[in-house]
Specification:
Largest sheet: none
InterPro entries: 7TM_chemorcpt
Organism: Cardiocondyla obscurior
Radius of gyration: 27 Å
Function: Gustatory receptor which mediates acceptance or avoidance behavior, depending on its substrates.
Shape: elongated
Subcellular location: Cell membrane
Number of strands: 0
Structural class: mainly alpha
GO biological process, one term: male courtship behavior
Length: 354
């Protein structure tokens, strides 16, 4: 990858295209170098934390065994639905990459050298974020299953279908079997929280590098999307415009998936506290109340966050901030570019008059 810069950087410096300027060339060179560094950093992080990755895989296998043991007491987990959603996400990402390659060739006549400098780093970072998304999706489904099991503890199935009395509902919570189930759910919830923290720590630094690269690439492609629309004296190239739109979709797609699922899992974790509060209001036994309070304290002292090395939380608020920051930088770049072109025209007119 580092050796490919000997071909990619001269290609960026001497390439000819519409709206080419010193600013765009500088961004392209920076994008090429940063893309190479990001790929190397991600691969290096994976190599160094290989043991953590193996431990994560073992923990996921263990939690699946625990889920299977509880499936006999509660409704089974809809794994097929989760797997189908993950398969659709992967297929859509592959389709975006294929369409991107086709439009790159049609719009710019791009070849392998161009693909090494921009598409390959984007592909690598995108799949890393989708891998992160897939793991969080599995954990989120398990959290939802645990919450559903906790909610089922407050329900009683009566054979005569008569309305349940408050005493009947409380009596179920006090039973020894219910306390045992509550302990199992508490341990499983704790295990899921530990896995979530390990996943967040493992992807923390690679995500920071990847988001930085995608941020720069978003600004670059956003500039080429807006610039032709604001320039009245240039003919609009629809192939280039479509290619830029595909670029923006390819960049936003993995980020939006990741931030959306992280927002969902944080909400799912927050639901557990309210469910325990409702369950505590039904409990009358000392043992049950003690276990519920201990479970509540466990939730109170454990704050799960998915961050990029502690710099920002990867939820939907980050996606909104990212889009707002990109738009702000685009406005600055366009104003700078329009000011430069206007001053160059004035200088050209003055030269003609003289």
């Amino acid at each position: 990858m580092i050796g490919s810069n000997y071909f990619s950087i001269p290609f960026r410096l001497y390439g000819d295209y519409e709206n080419r300027s010193n600013l765009t060339v500088s961004i392209e060179v920076l994008q090429t170098v940063l893309g190479t560094l990001v790929i190397c950093a991600i691969l290096l992080a994976y190599s160094i934390d290989q043991r953590s990755l193996v431990r994560l895989a073992n923990q996921l296998i263990e939690i699946e065994h625990e889920i299977n043991r509880l499936c006999c007491m509660y409704r089974p987990l809809r794994r097929q639905r989760v797997l189908c959603n993950l398969a659709v996400v992967c297929v859509l990402n592959v389709c975006l990459i294929i369409v991107l390659l086709i439009t790159e060739n049609l719009a710019w006549g791009a070849g392998p050298i161009s693909w090494l400098s921009d598409i390959l780093p984007t592909f690598h970072v995108g799949w890393m974020l989708i891998q992160y998304f897939m793991l969080v999706t599995i954990i989120q489904a398990n959290f939802a299953y645990v919450n559903q099991a906790i909610q089922n503890l407050t329900r009683v199935s009566t054979p005569d279908l008569r309305p349940q009395s408050l005493y009947q509902t409380r009596r179920v919570v006090v039973s020894n079997s219910t306390v045992h189930q509550l302990l199992q759910l508490r341990d499983m919830h704790c295990h899921l929280c530990e896995i979530s923290e390990d996943i967040s720590n493992f992807y923390s630094l690679p995500v920071l590098f990847g988001i930085t690269f995608l941020f720069l690439t978003l600004i670059y492609n956003g500039y080429f999307f807006i610039s032709p629309l604001l320039t009245a004296d240039e003919m609009l190239e629809y192939k280039a415009l479509i290619n830029t739109i595909i670029w923006l979709l390819t960049l936003i797609y993995p980020i939006s998936l990741l931030t959306n699922i992280i927002t969902k899992i944080l909400k799912e974790i927050g639901k557990t506290g309210s469910m325990l509060h409702n369950l505590l209001s039904y409990a009358i036994g000392k043992e049950t109340k003690s276990e519920l309070k201990q479970f509540s304290l466990q939730l109170l002292h454990r704050k799960i966050q998915f961050t990029a090395n502690g710099y920002f939380v990867l939820d939907n608020s980050f996606l909104h901030s990212l889009i707002g920051t990109v738009v702000t930088y685009l406005v600055i770049l366009i104003q700078f570019q329009m000011g430069s072109s206007h001053s160059s025209r004035l200088h050209h007119n003055c030269t003609k008059e003289n």
